[in-house]
Write a structure and sequence with these properties.
Number of helices: 11
Distance between the termini: 39 Å
Number of domains: 2
Strand content: 15-25%
Oligomer: single chain
Number of strands: 12
Largest sheet: 3 strands, antiparallel
CATH topology of the largest domain: D-Maltodextrin-Binding Protein, domain 2
CATH superfamily of the largest domain: Periplasmic binding protein-like II
Order of helices and strands: EEEHEHEHEEEHEHEHEHEHHHH
CATH class of the largest domain: Alpha Beta
Helix content: 25-40%
Radius of gyration: 19 Å
Amino acid sequence: MVSPGGNVPAWRSFAGDTGAEPHMTAAGELNIGHIPYLNSVPFFHFLQESGFAGNLVSGVPSELNRMLQQGELAVSPSSSFEYARNWQDYFLLPGHSISSCGKVQSVLLFSPVALGALEGEEIAITGESATSINLLRVILREFQGLRKVVDAVPDRPVEELIAAGRPALLIGDRALQTAEGMPVGMQCFDLGELWYRQTGLPFVFALWMVRRDAVSSFPEALAKLADQLRYSREKVLATPDEIAAACAPSSGLTAAQIITYWNGIDYRLEKAHLTGLKLFFKLCAKYDLLNREPPLEFLPDRTD
């Protein structure tokens, strides 16, 4: 089976059906979350070629957040806000993220009015990503000075509301596709760009998170995973033409647009990214979106 985000097998295996430990299959394989969006293709396309032998479980970010929290996954690229909310359960995998230093192109607020005129307006959201929703709340409160920010998941597709001239937030491939055919009179605001313009820092949308209770079960697999992910992402970005062409028909974009999109994403997790992440968590706590600012704790090095 081919996932919507590229030519990656999207096997689904739920441990509750197998009698295995929650974060593994009956065969003792590592369960890893797979986001079926274009932005995640570099992580997964050559993952098996790198030597990875675990099991991929597909879902949108909010689904993976839930499965990771409930122990159905051992590892997943997941919303950075999920880490902040439940950090006691996780370690961070070093070196990897889905971030932007400016435009991210796939986390977009569509609005018929300027940002400052959204006071009291209800913004439609999909509920697919806790990070993007809370980034929007922070941007409108902290950078636009709005006091009453209202958002809700509507009972019909968000794209219909955008077509009708209503403000709405879209993420992932749906955001990319809607931006290509944006209705007359609507403005499009890239949340990655808005954050960078105000802070000068990268924004970290997703982190690779490891359940703490899975570390003792998979010490060798987890020790290799960061290098395996790096192998896949670097190979895709070095030779993207054929892979982008394969993704294009189901994405609504051209291969050239997909390559431009990949090149605009920052997949690293370095000092500046961590500074931006801490600032986001601080502002979330300021506006009571988080109970507290979480510490950043990484997977222990077991190579010695």
